[in-house]
Batch of 3 targets.
Target 1
Amino acid sequence: MRSLGFDVQVAADVTEAARLLSAVPADRRVALVDPRFVGHVHALRLGLTDPRFPAATVPGALTAQPEARAALVRALDTTAEAVGAGVPTGAPAAPVTDRTVPGRLAVTMDAGGIPVQRPELGSLVAAVPTDAPARAEAESARASVDDEAVRLRSAVKAHDGFFTTFCISPYSRYIARWCARRGLTPNQVTTASLLTALIAAGSAATGTRGGYIAAGLLLLFSFVLDCTDGQLARYSLQYSTMGAWLDATFDRAKEYAYYAGLALGAARGGDDVWALALGAMVLQACRHVIDFSFNEANHDAVANSSPTAALSDRLDSVGWTVWVRRMIVLPIGERWAMIAVLTAVTTPRIVFYALLIGCAFAACYTTAGRLLRSLTRKAERTDRAARALAELADSGPLAQLVAAHGPRIPGAFSAPVIALVGAGALIAAALQQPFGSKQMIFAAVFYAICSGVAVARPLKGALDWLVPPIFRAAEYCTVLILAARSDVPGALPAAFGLVSAVAYHHYDTVYRIRGGTGAPPQWLVRTIGGHEGRTLVVAVLAAVFTQHSAFTVALTTLAVAVALVVLVESIRFWVSSGAPAVHDEGEPA
């Protein structure tokens, strides 16, 4: 216990334990452990030191953070006179498997409305033997399992891509342990990964073969560190709100900064690939929002059933199909490995061609599967899912006005169809109308109206999860097309910056929803216009600033304004709000 950071005191009974606990400052974590406990140190670490849960227990041990201290005191009061009974006072009639005092207290706290986390221990031992033979058996079981080996295996994410699982994690877990033993934090490793990726982007921007080779190697090393930070968090249980936010946002920043570095390097060699770089960013961002929208729409669906999902589950039972299916969707490990290798041996243009083809195929594959699941699934979407989709839609004042006062068109597929009509008209106008045409403004207004009508009704339809991705594609593609067709120097890099700022806002929205804190405040969405408002502004800018560099300056100004507003609010929220962290667990060994 001392090795885990606890001050150890011995209590003779529950009454004395309550007295000792009352003397501990209210802002401290406390734990109760049966003195007969036999088990691995890492079992206690998992049960008593994880910062994400107010209360947690393993057989023979219980912990409570400050927010659960009052519940623990109440449990002690109600349990003091019932230690010898089968069920503590006020607890449910369900069987009590852990009949130690900590186990009884955990049941009482659960019954009182305070959820007590019970981590999966896998092969780790945590037991309270009641006689000598049982103690010998527990000690033998403990000796047969290598505590440190289990801890290392558990540090690795349970479900990951082929490249990460077989080429990175077998080594990065040892880097994580090295970092833990030297007192480094996951946030420091995350920051090191970002800095390495930025240096890689700078190397790519040199436009030399040596720079490209160095960029590829540095990008791979950045990915190793990217895996290490999560493994370090799981290895040492150093979870934090700030860490979750940094890990989520820095991945996007690293990849998009590297795209910009490749584009700058190509420009030094006389090849303009900014349109390809922006296209790759747009495609990747749209892929992600499809993932987020589908998952949120079906996060808590009722009566969930689908023949397509059943087929997918059967395929997962065949080992090799799991890895093939994980590879073809081009997850971050495979994607970064491909980018790194192609950067070192080819040109930026080829890198972007490969990215666009690979990501387009992956997007078609995953979207087709989700469409089939949605059409064959008999499920009722909940109010929570509808609210999450509405928040992901990022509707601004114009769309909200139309949604409040405009028509509500019935139909199971009306929302995605209306959104698609508006997006199609907008993109078609951007492609067909001459740059600077006033018709583009009318197309943007029509898009804003369609956007409002699409979200006027709760998004509970089978395909309503398509609405946010359609909005993202409409906004991002419009900016890309107008910048590419403007033939104005610097317009595409400025558009790259604008889409980066807006995409950050959209990712930030996703991570807030996943953390259970809801979308960014409405004042922020209104300030930056919503997707339809920004699209209309860009259309107006294209119609007004058609000469020289004015369009570039206008796009740059808009990008800086959006970036400042969303970054300041995002940093304020994640640093000060105490929002819960979201981390992927390692698989129990």
Target 2
Amino acid sequence: MRTEDVLAAIATGLWRWDNASGTVTLDSEAARLLGLPAEPVVLPEVAVRSRFHPVDWNEINGIVNLAVAEGTLAEARLRIMDVDGRVLRTVRSRSKPMEKRAADGSTDYELIGTIQEIAEPQPGTTAAHTPITGDWRRSREAFLLDAGRALAEARSTAEVLRVAASLSMPGFSPDGLAVFGAAGDRLSIIGHHGHDPCDEGPFTHMPLETDYPAAEVVRTGRAIYLPTPDEYRRRFPAAWPLAQRFDRVSWAFLPLIVAGRTMGAWMAAFKHPASFSPDERSVLTTVARMLAQALQRAGVAESERELTTGLQRSMMPQLGPEIPGMRIAARYVPTGGGLQVGGDWYDMIPLPSGRFALVIGDVQGHDVRAAGLMGQLRIAVRAYASEGHRPDAVLSRASRFLAGLCSSQESDPYVDGDARARDADVRDSDFQSPRFATCLYVECDPKTGMLEVARAGHPDPAIRMADGTVLMRPTAGGLPLGIDPDTDYPTTRFALEPGETMMLCTDGLIETGGHDLDTGWARLRAVLESDAHESPSTGAGAGAGTGAGTGTAGLLEPPHLERLADLLVQAVHGPSSHHTTGPLADRREDDIAVVLLCREAVDHRTAPLHPARPARRTVLTVAQVEPERIAGARQQIRELLHDWADPDQVDSAVLMVSEMVTNVLTHTDGDALLVAEAVGELGARRLRVEVADGSDELPHKRQPGEMSSSGRGVLLMEMLADAWGVDPRGEGKSIWFELHEQSKTDADPVF
């Protein structure tokens, strides 16, 4: 007897599936099992695929790929459908995937195996179900692993429901889902899939005493399986009219249990008959447990987000009314981890005489205590400023306030030493540790643009000039608040010219993403200097403003502050990642606070027809006790001349400034005041640098010896400057020099 005859006698067919050619070869028995005429045939892949249940077809690809990777047999259980979509029978396929390498090097496979009908119990019976073995069981386990991972990553109730609706269970997939929640003595629908929005009406606020499967599941904590409409009608006659209109034939209602408490029920409804075998019930029960835990986590996370968002919004002030001649924008972005609360803050405080103050600060830490200290410190700073104290006095009082606040928390009078020791395992020791805070306080006169800055360990402000040049503005400062209650905070004064913008920020905007202070500032400078945030009315002039030109091309529109604030935040962790979840959310390593202050330029309608390019100007004081600020003076000159045509002239200017400031600190008892200004059109600008001091001793030309360490300052200016001089003043003098930009001519064209 032939092998084919033996296989046909036991209702087993042979098939060969060539994935490369897209054809399937069937013997007569295999064709009969697929609902085709009982004769050998070669069919295209699409004709055979139409005979399988869509869910089974989607899963067989994974089973075959797994068998190819492991070098094992591919075993699957498949439902055969007729042309009307009814299930004819269930078959089991066992095949061996064999790789085929084409001439072009690509790899495909061919399946050679058997197909055999298996007995399925009728819905509602207790007949034993054919055991699922081999790769089919591994497919179910892989499904549960994927479902658990997807549900664990869901961060909101809506995401959990979307994941539940997208689950494709191995061998049987519901086409209707509903999640019921229990609150008090009522049952309500949290979410559903496969139904119209208006279908949830009868199930909203349903009493738990209702004769409905989900209500009974919540009352008893036990699952209910209804494999047929007759079973549903027999057990729940009152609720059957509600379920009948959805045209389903099988239902499973499972309890959602967390920590021994039934929080709701999950309904899975099927349009095809489901017998709810032990294996299928095991899958449904496992999914229900994971779904309950995911909903519990999502509810807790949403409550925490609502709490922390309300806390931060209550602590973050509004920028207040508009100030004539000034525009202000601010952003706050909490860190990506934990409760998303932290110690960064900003504030705008109205002051007497029409002035206002801008404050930005950062309390150490990213926890609830940091947020609490931030709120207390912000209120204290606001109170001291409203009393009319100067910037240095405001920070001095705030430092004493924070030091006293942390000291009182560290030695709580209501908890003795023994009690504190007993509660050491419960109370967080870090909650009692001292904290410090950095702060930058700026008092502004909107009429003149004069700024008075006091700084407590905070990053310096940055200034974007009217022509787009960005400079770091060094300011005098003291220790962070709360470290030494008796620290002094010197004040730095400078003017914000029309068209200039000042940026205040916390270190989270600078150092996030592995950057240090230098590389972080370089990243932000690129955003500040770009024209992506220019006002929409800028037009071509904005683009031309970055290159050579005359007339209106040399004058940039003021930046659009709201757009600029968004771009600065996006430069750190990507577009809008602080509003939505995504792969960039974890880049929020620290809180971010940023404040932008722009002094409006002259109205363009009343400006001259051909306005001159705005001057670049910087002012810096170098005190006797701060000789290290000479390096800052050199850096200021380099940044001021960042687009100067001749780099050698930039080096000359830096050298002369370093020499002039050093001479003041060496030969006088006072401080050095540096004023540098560059005016004119690109390629024909003039740089004038003045260094003033309080000494009336004038410099004189000397002939230093070969080994002399001084006496070369005047010689350097004679050699390098286009002009220089000394101007006596009422108290002291001013030494100055000028450099005229020399545009480099283009190279001769090559013919």
Target 3
Amino acid sequence: MLHKLAALAVGRRKLVLVLTLLFVVLGGALGGGVADRLSAGGYEVPASESTRAADAVADQFGSGSPNLVILVRTPAGIDDPATTRKGLALTAALAKEPGVRQAVSYWSQDRAPLLHSEKGDSALVLAHLSGDEDQVADSLEALLPHYDKGFQGLDLAFGGQAEAYRELTEQTQKDLALAEALVLPLTLLLLVLVFRGVIAALLPLALGVVAVMGTLAVLRVLVAFTDVSVFAMNLTTALGLGLGIDYALFVVSRFREELRRGAPVPDALSTTLRTAGRTVLFSALTVGLSLSALLIFPMYFLRSFAYAGIAVVAFAALGALVVLPALLAVIGHRVDKWSFGRRRRATAVDRGDSGFWHRLATLVMRRPLPLATAVVALMVFLLTPFSGISFGLADERGLPADAEAHRVGDVITRDYAAQAMSPMLIKADGAASRARVADYTERLSRLPDVARVDGLAGSWTDGRKVADGSGPLYRQFAGEDGTWLLLVPDVDPYSDAGQRLVSEVRRTPAPFAVRVGGTAASFKDTMSALGDRLPYGLLIVAVSMFVLLFLLSGSVLMPLKALVLNLFSLTATFGSIVWVFQDGHLKWLVGDFTTTGTTVATNPIMMFCVAFGLSMDYEVFLLSRIKEEYELTGDNTRAVARGLERTGGLVTAAALLMALVFLSFLVSGITYMKMLGFGLAVAVLMDATLVRGVLVPAFMRLAGRFNWWAPAPLARLHRRIGLREGGETPPVRRLQAVPQQPEPARR
């Protein structure tokens, strides 16, 4: 197959390039506006109890948790008659806006104590915007222009989930444009230094453009059928450029190596695709399969990264195996045009018997056990902060501190007594008498950490009905198919106390069937779903990686070694995200952010799948070259040293460029995007240096000839279906396999 691709690249190179240009133009036209159609949510579990409760309350009662909060400040005071009149007018006007199903306020609710600050200098207007996330966003965009300048002299500030998601979408697009403006010129400069030439340096960027444009077109098609997170755009750009650079580095480097050996351009391309091309294909499969594990999680936030990541990998591999060879066929020997320093480097690179990486591998293999032990101890130490991880979900605190939703959230947290923005929804099914509802409401109000419970039977606090003059937050609690209650906690929904309260509410006996929703319940259901599906995700990654590396190496030990060592590359990642972002260190390095004391629960899972796939990416590049050398020489130690010398510089360069792309996320104003970029950059750099430079040669030296061992049945299976980089039996092995014939007698 790869030989046919080489023939296609040479024989139909102009057609391939014309079709590629057309594809990029059409992909850009189709996917150019996809960002406006993406969503900022996706953290809830669709079929969970909390989601079904929220949907039932919204469908049957036109109500639910307030997803839009307006903070009202006035110098005259919230109880001033003029302020009261304006507050009532604001509440009535908001309730009439398209998409707003219900609006209540401090003034419309008989001066409800939960809706004014403890200082009495501000009050809240709560609204429920109906529909899915896209419909809520459209409704908010339509009403904001009417109120962003204030209302009849009242100073208004917008917060809540709807406003936070709107600002997250806007901030993501700004951050992405800034990151691209910074990373593209820096990447080109580093590529020129790595390739020591301008023409060769432009090829990886061209490949990255193909991968990004193709993926944007795929996302544009997907949003017509399913929800896709706006943060998939960040991964599209990062992986598109990163994998484009990775694959182009290895293909172009091998092509130049074959040219320096004197091969004609067609032969150089054929050898390149049969060797480096096969490695790229295996690498793409490893990264794609690792990302596919995200598809088993029900939250579309995680699934979106799988959609974008798999598409990027597919287009990057296709570009490396079809488009890039066509470009090289056209450019030919001009790939070294405007180059510098080639003669000085060529001999050492081609031979692989000297150089920094050869010396490092030799040093490590002389003292494998103490050096490996020291590196493992360091990585275990870097992992220790992860033991204190505390999980949460994304909210307005992930926005920049000056974002409006963030400022409103800070005021409510600081100045308001209860979590009125994060209530629990309790949907009761079937007809129920007021007396039975009152009994159940009274029991709920006695639970620890409950501020009040509103429902059909009025408002209750600590087992007592609230006196007249301070009515429930919402009025419509009864319908044809049951009733619902609104429970306002006085603890953070993500805290241990908030999660215990969810369990207590769900365990409280009720005279009817109930479903519990709201922020705290949604978080509990999300954590349960992640915990339930995580073992299956890990199993998918482990089994698929083992099978692929067995097909590549023919060994049972090498895949196991790769799985274990790649986990080590993630230790520093998980430790760093807790120490930096949860505990609040190194703000001077990563940029200012709000320390919440929690880590967004979906981020470690996403980072694991992406980082593990990229680690396997580098493992494939190194292992394939070591195996090629081992088949030529039969010397394990020499094969490791030469394989590391031939790939060490390229892997390190690829890792530096990939890390640069991920570090561009640090310019983001969104905390968990900073976390993602920083964590992945640390993982890539750790893997390309300490793991590949020390742990891999140390392990392979200790294992010796057992590196390539497999049980006899698996060895026979590999001889039948296994693949290796060379594509045909190397000359040394072929000559050894042919029996010597007696020399004919001379006449």
